[in-house]
Amino acid sequence: MNTLYFLTLNGLTMAALLFIMASGLTLAFGLMRVVNLAHGAFYLLGGYVGVQVINDTGSLTLGLLAGGCIALVGGLLMERFLLQRVRGLDLSEALMTIAVGLIIADALLVVYGGQPVSLPLSRELRAPVDLGVMMYPYFRVLIMVFALLLGILLWLVMTYTRLGAAIRAGVDDRETAMSQGINVPLLFGGVFAVASFLAGIAGVIGTSYMSLTQGLDVRVLMLSLVVIIIGGMGSLKGAAVGALITGMVSSFATGYLPQFALFFLFLPMTLILVFRPQGLFGRAA
Amino acid sequence: MKREHLLILAIVAALVAWPLLMGNYAVAQANRAMIYALAALSFSLLAGRLGWFSLCQTTFAGISGYTVAILGVRYGLPFPLVVLLALLLTTFSAVIFGLLTVRSRKVSFLMLTLALGQMVWALSFQWVDVTGGYNGIAGVRMPVYGGVDLNDTRIFYVMVTTVTVAIFLAMWRLYRSPFGLLLLGIQENEQRMRALGHPVALARFSAFVLAGAIAGVAGVFLVYDMGIMSPSPLGLGHAVWVLTAAVLGGYRSLLGPAIGVAILITLETLVAQYTDRHMMVIGLVLLLSILLMPRGLAEVLEQRFKRKSKPQASVTTTTRGE
Q1: Do B119 and A222 count as a contact with CB atoms less than 8 A apart?
Q2: Tell me, what's the ipTM?
Q3: Region B92-115: what's the mean pLDDT?
Q4: When you count CB atoms within 10 A of the terminal residue's CB, does the N or C end of chain B come out lower?
Q5: CB–CB of A165/A156 below 8 Å?
Q6: Which are the contacts of A54, defined by CB distance < 8 A and separation ≥ 6?
Q7: Which residue in B74, B132, B88 sits closest to B220, CA to CA?
Q8: Distance (Å, whole) CA A208 – CA B248
Q9: Where are its TM segments located (chain B) (predicted)?
Q10: Is the Cβ of A221 closer than 8 Å to some Cβ of chain B?
């Protein structure tokens, strides 16, 4: 019985992380139709810088902010100086983000070297807490709470605020939204900034779960893609459900059939592609 | 028409002269270049004809390479059978991937092929019993027939050149055949092609499987060239390398991908003397290609040649509106 709880909790943690990772990607895709394939590199950038700041200052909050902000700056620079030049050509945009991702990841390798880096956590954060059914590391509980709050916040903003309404209008019909006086380019920049910020934050948080190494950017990108393909590209609800499915399947497969963990990780995505290509909550093209 | 024949003759003459004039290193480089040119051709068939940018063509090459390594080294099957089975298995995987991706368009196709390709890559180092994990499978060698060692650089060159030229010539015919034109038509206006009664989905699917098979051929040569099969050729880096070569050279033309590969290999050899940051170089080349000449070098050269430029739409230069 304990294993069952443990695997469920691990799955939930994984799902929370996946949601934090994928929410930025799906947000940018939903509004701008830009697949930011540099997402994994921004994750890595945020992670490395965040961990360095935590090491230097000893403050987790500062580290999180620093990781998020550096990714935000990177995202904004990429959006202003590169993506704007090929705006509207979605394939060129996607290829450009691949190029930027390669450059960032290689530059990080130069600066931080190839040694794995893990998140320095204080003892209180690492200590297990009693969840009623079993003891579980406090920081992982925090990750789950954070993902839940993030999801609720994003949902509230998208559903109940003017800003959210403007974003949804921009997604549905860009031209009409612009003719109604909504500054869509500014909105795009803003959403892209938030998306990059989330990638950077995810990098810092995720480092408590898997250490930063060369090649992690591609893994993160792949996982995020799997999540949003399952959920439907551009849908926040989809990202949440996709993360939950992927996290749970991954945790239980690792627990019971470790050799086939990867196979099971991709199984839901394949099934979705066969029976519902637009994803669970995606709209047909 | 006539100019094209001259061009083909000139290229074949250059390919014949190369091993006669150059040293072993240059011949080995040419082998590698032709293998990657095949991979880039496989990419360009989808990108140039259908507007489908695939990040899993190197995955097919990898599947083919692993089949050769596993069947040839582990089970010691004879060379012709190994090659045949490798090509069959690659085509079969292309059929499966094709079924999964045939309904997707543009960016979602890119994302799907990325995810599927990375899945195989992950499998290739996790399934240690079969693939040998990170260490891979070493000792992949061609046989010696009647005293002729097929592994010899120059003999290998003859084989690679023959097959590569044959495939490029076949593609040259295909691009101007009704099927090739149908693919272009689908890229330009899918609805119209459908309305005209063409089997759009089937044509797309066939092109995908064909491109996979070409990548499979590249994979067979690649594994014999390297002598070892490891997960790295299946990684995203290789996929992006091939994509960069095709974008740089011009994926819409037949020779563009080959030109791009030649430039990229030359560039890497030059840069290697100063730095080992070659992924950064690839990233910069890709970035600059998209910014400065989205149609690729081949079309820039062609226009310089012809002077009377016929404006043609390129996938990356058409606007988003359907």
Answers
A1: yes
A2: 0.83
A3: 87
A4: N
A5: no
A6: A60, A62, A63, A119, A120, A204
A7: B88
A8: 40
A9: 33-52, 59-77, 83-102, 109-128, 155-175, 201-224, 230-248, 255-274, 280-298
A10: yes
| Amino acid letter for position A253 | A
User: What is the Cα–Cα distance from A54 to A77, expressed in whole angstroms?
Assistant: 25
Q: Is A9 on the interface with B (CB under 8 A)?
A: no
Is residue B309 scored above 50 in pLDDT? no
Domain range list for chain B: 2-235
Instruction: Tell me which residue has tokens 């003017």.
Output: A162
Element (H, E) at B215: helix B200-226
A238-272 pLDDT per residue, tens: 999 999 999 999 888 888 887 777 778 888 887 88
The residue among A221, A258, A254 whose CA lies nearest residue A29 is A221
Whether A29 and A95 have beta carbons less than 8 Å apart is answered as no
Burial degree of A252 (CB within 10 A; 0-12, 13-18, 19+): middle
Residue, of A284 and B22, whose pLDDT is higher = B22
Which amino acid does the sequence have at A104?
Answer: I
Asked if residue A46 lies in contact with residue A204, where contact means CB atoms within 8 angstroms, the answer is yes
Evaluate whether B252 touches B299 at the Cβ level (below 8 Å). Answer: yes
Q: Cβ contacts of residue B116 below 8 Å, gap of 6+?
A: B56, B59, B97, B100, B101
- The pTM assigned to this predicted structure is 0.87
* Ranges of H-type helices in B22-52: 24-50
Q: How distant, in Å, are the alpha carbons of A97, B28, B156, B157 from that of B22?
A: 39, 10, 15, 12
Phi, psi of A230 (to 5 degrees): -65, -50
* Token pair belonging to A26: 């799906």
List the single residue in A with minimal CA-CA distance to B281: A103
Tell me how many residue pairs between chain A and chain B have CB atoms under 8 A apart: 120
CA distance A90 to A36: 11
* Residue A269 near chain B (CB below 8 Å): yes
CA atoms of A186 and A183, how far apart (whole Å): 6
Average pLDDT over residues A181-189: 82
- Alpha-carbon distance B35 to B220, whole Å? 9
User: Considering chain A, what is the average pLDDT of its residues?
Assistant: 86
